[in-house]
Amino acid sequence: MRASVSIGCMPSSVRSLLSWVGTSILEVTFRLLVVFLLMMFQHLVVFQEV
After folding, report:
1. Is 27 within the bounds of a domain?
2. In a domain, 5, yes or no
3. Which residues cross the membrane (predicted)?
4. Residues 1-50 pLDDT 10s
5. DSSP category for residue 3
6. What is the pTM of this model?
7. Number of domains observed in the structure of the chain
8. Fewest CB within a 10 Å sphere: which of 1, 16, 29, 31?
9. What are the Cα distances from residue 9, in Å, to 16, 17, 21?
10. Residue 35 sits in which domain range?
11. Does the residue 32 lie in any domain?
């Protein structure tokens, strides 16, 4: 089994699976980034109130 197989040779189901995995990973990282920014914003607001 060779790992260096171009995506063009793969079946469409594998390609769709790879694209779905990529989009889901992007979604998860984006949500984590949003949560992190919200937490930072809340910390800034708390520091300003003190």
Report:
1. yes
2. no
3. 20-41
4. 455 556 566 678 888 999 999 999 999 999 999 999 999 998 888 777 76
5. S
6. 0.52
7. 1
8. 1
9. 13, 14, 18
10. 14-49
11. yes
C-alpha 30/C-alpha 37 separation (Å) is 11
**Maximum Cα–Cα distance for the chain, whole Å?**
62
For the stretch 30-41, pLDDT in tens is 999 999 999 999
Closest to 15 in 3D by CA, of 6, 25, 2, 27: 6
- In this structure, is residue 39 part of a structural domain? yes
Q: Which two tokens stand for residue 44?
A: 């800034």
Q: Which residue has the tokens 């063009």?
A: 8
Contact 7, 18 (CB under 8 A): yes
Q: What distance in Å separates the CA atoms of residue 47 and residue 22, rounded to the nearest whole number? A: 37
